[in-house]
Amino acid sequence: MISDGEDCFFREYKRKLEKLYDRFFTERGTKLAAKRRAAAEAFYGSLLMEAEGTYRMGKERLSEVIKDSCRRKQD
């Protein structure tokens, strides 16, 4: 999980920003929202992928360190 329960960009995006783009009612507003939506979705997806990858790598590395520490204690 990305967040520890506090408000964060990921939660706020899903809760508020993701729905914002459907709330423009003029033709010009709808066109602008469509462009902004594409940019926001790309940014959100990229940032989420980076955060999840970093989290996974950190979790794997921590597991390796703990296993090494346990092995050394047994030796």
Helices, strands, pairings?
Layout (H helix, E strand, L loop, with lengths): L8 H12 L6 H48 L1
Helix pairs in contact: 1-2
Written description of the protein model:
The chain is mostly helical and 75 residues long. It contains 2 helices and no strands. Helix 1 packs antiparallel against helix 2. It is rod-shaped, with a radius of gyration of 20 Å.
Search tags:
75 residues; mainly alpha; 2 helices; rod-shaped
Tally of helical segments: 2
Beta strand count: 0
Beta-strand residue fraction: under 5%
Q: Major β-sheet, in short?
A: none
* N-to-C order of helices and strands: HH
End-to-end Cα distance, whole Å, is: 35 Å
Q: Return the structural class.
A: mainly alpha
Report the principal-axis shape. Answer: rod-shaped
* Weakly predicted, low-confidence segments: none
Average per-residue pLDDT, rounded, comes to: 87
Rg over CA atoms, rounded to whole Å, is 20 Å
Query: Percentage of helical residues?
Result: over 70%
